[in-house]
Amino acid sequence: MIMMGRAAILGTDWTSRSSFETAFGNSQAFAVCSSGSLLVAVGGSGKCATSSDNGVTWTARPSFTTAFSYTAKAVCWNGSVLVAVGDYAACATSSDGGVTWTSRPSLTTGFGNVFAAYAVCWNGSVLVAVGGDYGSTGKCATSSDNGVTWTARPSFSTAFGNSQAFAVCSNGSVLVAIGSNGMCVTSSNNGVTWTARPSFNTAVGNANGYAVCSSGSLLVAVGSGACATSSDNGVTWTARPSFNTAFGGSWGRAVCSSGSLLVAVGDYNGNNPMCATSSDNGVTWTSRPSLATAVFGNTAPRAVCWNGSLLVAVGDYGKCATSP
Question: Structurally, how many domains does the chain consist of?
């Protein structure tokens, strides 16, 4: 609740957006991204919804369900198309703002028989998708033609070892991927070759890394009760224990930057929804309970993004919130 006479504060005050639940149903929303003028969310049972008014109203996009059929775990915008990836390395693209989608089976071929492609990002030149399977090596594939065809990158599997890759991002200079067992790898040549970065494991212990983002040149990673930052393109990482204090031991599922503010959301085993913010590059974090009390209750937020004007968080049971 916003105190009388006080302006809403970014990341502190959250507003529920019930239109999202109407469009998305009772499914889990695993990812949300911005194309500039449009917000796009994807998730369980091949669900997709879009908003052109900063998350106030949402429209279901059934073409996505036809093209995808599996659970979607990630979505990104490369300036021309939307690209979604998910379970069984399914992939679909849209060039009309998420209204219609086309299945892209080349990613499945590139990944092989894996449980999921968990993340996808754009680095200005190529699309990069990462994922893996239980007890198997991490997987990576890249696309230079808007997600139509994908090329497997075996160097990633060699560098990542017997872990699953849950997140990937670009800071403009390097690609960085993190995942289970505190694994981290970087690439400076568009994902062709990758180098393991053991400093990340030292910083987070053996914790799973679930999300990574860039804030200018800074890289910020969050995971199962852990946060670490890097200012040298992912070579060395510094643990940020203030995050675990603010998060109460819950898992950081997603993190994004507004340019001046870092925002992380997460949960613990689908319960205990959490939100925390940092205005000093991830050194100190402050818990923001409004996301849980005003919107999510005891359900999990799974993703958060910044669209240039506001923050948007989505999660289980068709929940959505915006801030401020």
Answer: 1
Of the candidates 154, 200, 153, which has an alpha carbon nearest to the alpha carbon of residue 176? Answer: 200
Structure tokens at 238: 């510094």
**Cβ(214)–Cβ(231) under 8 Å?**
no
Give alpha helix (H) positions in the chain: 18-24, 62-68, 106-111, 154-160, 199-204, 241-247, 290-291
**Structural domain contains residue 3:** no
Q: Is residue 2 part of a domain?
A: no
User: Is residue 5 one of the residues assigned to a domain?
Assistant: no
Q: Is 246 helix (H, G, I), strand (E, B) or coil?
A: helix
Polymer length in residues for the chain: 324
313 in any annotated domain: yes
pLDDT in tens, 264-278: 999 988 788 999 999
Pairing mode of beta strands 262-268, 72-77? unpaired
CA distances from 126 to 151, 189, 208, 254 (A): 11, 10, 26, 22
The phi and psi torsions of 102 (rounded to 5 degrees) equal -125, 130
> H helices within 241-310, ranges in order?
241-247, 290-291
Beta-ladder partners of 176: 169, 186
Angle at 9 between CA 7 and CA 12, to 5 degrees: 135
What secondary structure, in 3-state letters, does 167-221 show? EEEECCCCEEEEEHHHCEEEECCCCCCCEECCHHHHHHCCCCEEEEEEECCEEEE
d(CA 95, CA 42): 16
Q: Which amino acid is at 249?
A: G
- Ramachandran quadrant class, 146 (left: phi over 0; alpha: psi -120 to 50; beta: rest): left
pLDDT in tens, 121-166: 999 999 999 999 876 789 999 999 999 999 999 999 999 998 999 9
Residue 291: give its domain's CATH number: 2.130.10.10
